[in-house]
Amino acid sequence: MGRPFQHLSCGVAFLLSVVLFFASISSAQTESIKPLRVGIIGLDTSHVVVFTRIFNDPTDPEHIPGIRVVAAFKGGSPDVEDSRTRIDRFTAELRDKWNIKIVDDIPTLCGMVDAILLESVDGRTHLEQVKPVLTAKKAVFIDKPLAASYKDATEIARLAKQTGVPWFSSSSMRFWEETQRLKSPGEAVGHITGYSVYGPSPIEPHHPDLMWYGIHGVEMLFTLMGRGCESVSRASAANEDVVVGRWKDGRLGVMRGFRNGLRNYGITLFSDKSVLHSEPRPDVYGPLLGEIAKFFRTGIPPVNPEETLEMMAFMEAADMSKARGGASVPLSEVTR
Question: How far apart are CA 44 and CA 46, in angstroms?
């Protein structure tokens, strides 16, 4: 008489194990698609509003799924006009429209999130602001400029390596459709001898000239040319700069920056067979944010930190060249 009940008991146990198995799979799948929680440091740039909208609003045309901004630290630099005059407006929009929790300090922020967007418009603040992020072992994207000096930039890189925390810094123009197209134009173009790029380059008194906004053009140039710049010379006029880099393989890369209100970006490729020009396409943020999302998931930066540091040296050397009347300045003077 006991055997039927024994079989029934075994059957129930089996069914229960199956239910639990599929429940665990369902739970794992739910966990795998659970959005990463992201925190923002520095609410004094329009990027914080745009990035939050693209990550958090599924109806946005550039929406990137799998990432959600949940909290932020206000920050701010009273001596920088773009910070002082905009930070309260951007903070209010994040808090009131997007329900982002504003916290009082960076360690608290790090305890609430999986990764960090360091967005402070003032590059001088980045070194001190990133230190608690590295201590908390949070992957971090540091918006341009990485810092306001080559010295601070190298210290950020050193501390990140010491703590084993992945990071990268980039302008959205690195991932602009035309930058990527002309970086790999196909074999029919022949041997590429150099590039010329142009874009807006207003300045700010607390930063080396190109680190404030001309960095977008510099980022394009290094994306196209790669590492290996040896020296920089800069011709400067009231409303524009022309900066020429000489690469170790003999190629020349030129960046032209405008301070007269021109907002367009462009690229010219020179080869032994042809000259190609960029087409007028919108410079959107989606491609950059897609790379950030992938980086937060994998921990693999899409930009070599050594290339970013070389860019910082290039921009600092450009200021030295201006001070010397346009003389060529070896990057080794900055990096030694």
Answer: 7
